[in-house]
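#onboarding

Welcome to the new folks! Below is a worked example of what a typical request in this channel looks like: someone posts a single protein sequence, and someone else replies with the predicted structure as tokens. Don't worry about understanding the tokens yet, we'll cover that in week two.

Example request:
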Amino acid sequence: MAARQSLFTRVVRATLTKKVARVAPVMAVAFGLGLGAAACGGDATQDAVVDTTVADVTTSVAAAFPVTVGDLTLDAEPQRVVSMSATATEMLFAIGAGDKVVAVDNFSNFPAEVDSLPKIDAYEPSVEAISELEPDLVIISYDPGNLVEQLNALSIPVFAAYAVMNLDGVYEQM
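Example response:
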């Protein structure tokens, strides 16, 4: 029985290690964007506290980069993000990085702040319209018309967070 537990434990650890290795870079990007956004906020009563920690937060954000996820490497925190995924749009605003979003797909309707942003057709996105926004990151959930290839040809970094179609896909993304 001890040998089975040992083998089971090794398999679970190996599986979790692989999953953490795949998720960690994505979390690092989100963490970096969140830290950057946190450093930008504050009111008069919080300014003294923020002033004492801004250098620490800036150092932490800078230390989180470069970040590599698959073939994508971000050397610095993205400042101009185009979100072609309603889910990604909501997540960016939820982590406090909404001020970095410069355009969204036409299905992004939450939070209310996205109403004032330029909209890009999700099914037939204009590469020209995206490139005119000068993004340093485009987030997509699927690749209509070889969008990734076209943006990469223009040296525009793309993070592809493809939608899963079943429960197995959820586990694969972990």
